[in-house]
Structure formats: structure tokens, C-alpha cells
Amino acid sequence: MIKGIRRQAGSIKLGGLLALPAALAGLEFPLVVILLGTLWHTVFDRTSEGEEVGEKAVVEFTIRNVRSGLEMEMAERMLTGHEGKIAEMAGSNPVRWLEKPPQGYLGELSVRPDKFPPGTWYFDKERKVLIYRPARAHNLTCSQCEQLAGHILLSWRIEGMGNRMFGRGDRMKIVPVAPYQWFPSTAAGQSSK
Asked: What is the mean pLDDT of each run of 10 residues along the chain (193 residues)?
């Protein structure tokens, strides 16, 4: 008999919480298996979703860091009298302005790597875009994003904003190549401000 399950006259008591008629005595094990299976599925599903939320946060944090590094580089060029060189930043590799590359960064490549595992980044030198392949993307949608073997690839580029910074040089920004939505409440292009 399973611990916590007691037989009483005419019924079965499950840990004092639920009483079953004795006629259902043969269902003890299947009932416990179903309950445990349901519990395991719920916990696993929540854990997987939590990992995806964490991955989304890391990606957004990385893009925010790139944005900060880009702004610092523009400010430095202005302070050193090189505001005319700010426009040269368009299409460049944004990872160069990070203190260290993001985890899983494969480098600057001319062609997509043969092995582009989930959770990795690379800079496509030909198209001038930073590309990320999510490891968990059950809640990620993007109708215009590039795909690899049925998996969405996210990409960003550095481009001019079309206005000048204090009248002294172009401004640059990092933008998603295609708008995406990672979880229903965020649309990136918007979530990566």
C-alpha cells in the first residue's frame, strides 16, 4: 500500500484529504500516477517557461548594453572632435562596444556557421547584422524573421536615426531587422528600446 493511503471500512482515505469508495480500491496506483504526472507536467511547463523568460531578459539586457555602448562611443567621438565619424558606425558590429561579448558569441562571420546552436550569437559581416538564435522560443513570434530549420533567428543592425546630435553629428541606434513578439505582452522592436 502506498504511504499516506489508508483503508477504512468501505472507503480508502488518501492522506486524510480524500475518501474513495472501496470499489475504487484498484485505482489507487493509477490515480497516484495520474496526479503525479499532472503535477510533474505543470512544474516542468512552468520551469520551461521561466527559462524562456530568463533567456528573453538576457537578450534584452544584451541589446540594452549594446545601446549604452553605442551611445558612449558616439559621445566619445563628439568629445574628441570626431563627430563626422559617427556616421561610419552604421552597419558596424555592435559587440565591439561591449566590455565583453555576450555568452555564446561566435564572432564576425561572412557566412552562417555550419554549427549555429541555440543560444548563440554572431555578427554577419556581409549583411551587417547581429544575429541570435534563441534556445527557447515557444512564446516567440515573428512573421518576417529569418528562420533556420524552422527556428526563428532574431537580428539587429546599427543605423542612423536621421537627426543630428546637438547639431554636431549623426545619431546611431540599434534596431531589430524585423519586429518580433516574445510573450504576448511585448512587441520587440518595442521591447528592445
From this structure: 52 54 60 65 63 92 94 90 88 92 93 84 95 90 84 91 59 91 64 39
**Identity of the amino acid at 157:** R
Cell, residue 137: 522560443
For strands 105-109 and 120-124, give the pairing: parallel
Give dist(CA 74, CA 68) in Å, integer: 10
d(CA 10, CA 20): 9
Is this prediction's pTM over 0.90?
no
Secondary structure string (H, E, C) spanning 4-26: CEEEECCEEEECCCEEEEHHHHH
- Residue 29's Cβ-side half-sphere holds a number of Cα atoms within 13 Å equal to 2
**Furthest C-alpha separation in the chain:** 92
Cα separation values, 92 from 72, 82, 96, 102, 175, Å: 15, 17, 9, 16, 13
Q: How high is the pLDDT of residue 193?
A: 38
